[in-house]
Specification:
Order of helices and strands: EEEEHEEEEHEHEHH
Strand content: 25-35%
Number of domains: 1
Family: Belongs to the UPF0301 (AlgH) family.
Distance between the termini: 17 Å
Number of helices: 5
InterPro entries: AlgH-like
Number of strands: 10
Radius of gyration: 18 Å
Structural class: alpha+beta
CATH class: Alpha Beta
CATH topology: VC0467-like
Pfam family, one: DUF179
Organism: Rickettsia conorii (strain ATCC VR-613 / Malish 7)
Protein name: UPF0301 protein RC0043
Length: 189
């Protein structure tokens, strides 16, 4: 048996396979892959809307110029470190980036972006996501081999679509998959 070839999925989207992941946080999830190396992987679920927050009060923005609440949706990025918040956003905003993917997406995690969004000076598109998803070395590869995930190229339209409930179905449609006809008896040839 030879060594397995590593395929870096950073900047790709994972689509939960229909009928395989049937409950919990990963059921019908879409995950944008922030980092994928032989040491493990990190991603953000971007279709789990949990609430709306006022940026001004959430980030304790002390500015009298903002007199009304600035409500933004808040998404659950995964089961790890819910106290950490990230903005997955379009690359038109490039101040103090945490990650820049060179595919029209970036990630920020600082107070400055929240203030800029509150003042209307932030990125054209953004999602505020708390928590993240992480895999140990080899864990994601094992999940891919057992067909828990489909992989698709990054698609900003899916990430920033207005209706989070339809994102997963639209991703399947983009991949040419009809959920009704997708077999739960899948495997590798």
């Amino acid at each position: 048996m030879g060594d397995k070839i590593f395929h870096n999925l950073s900047g790709k989207t994972l689509v939960a396979t229909p009928h395989v992941i049937t409950k919990g946080i990963y059921h019908k999830s879409l995950i944008y892959m922030l980092s994928h190396t032989e040491e493990g992987a990190i991603g953000l679920i971007f279709n789990r809307l949990v609430n709306h927050i006022d940026l001004k009060s959430f980030f304790k923005i002390k500015n009298d110029e903002i007199t009304t609440p600035v409500m933004v949706p808040i998404y659950l990025g995964g089961p790890v470190e819910h106290e950490k918040g990230f903005f997955l956003h379009s690359s038109d905003y490039n101040k103090n980036l945490l990650l820049d993917f060179h595919n029209d997406l970036a990630v920020s995690s600082n107070l400055e972006i929240s203030e800029d969004i509150a003042f209307g000076k932030g990125p054209k598109n953004s999602l505020f996501i708390v928590g993240y998803t992480a895999w140990k070395p080899g864990q994601l590869e094992e999940e891919l081999e057992t067909n828990l995930w489909l992989v698709m190229d990054c698609n900003k339209e899916f990430i920033f679509a207005d209706n989070p409930e339809s994102k997963w179905h639209n991703a399947l449609k983009h991949l040419g998959i009809d959920e009704i006809h997708f077999s739960s008896q899948i495997g590798n040839a």
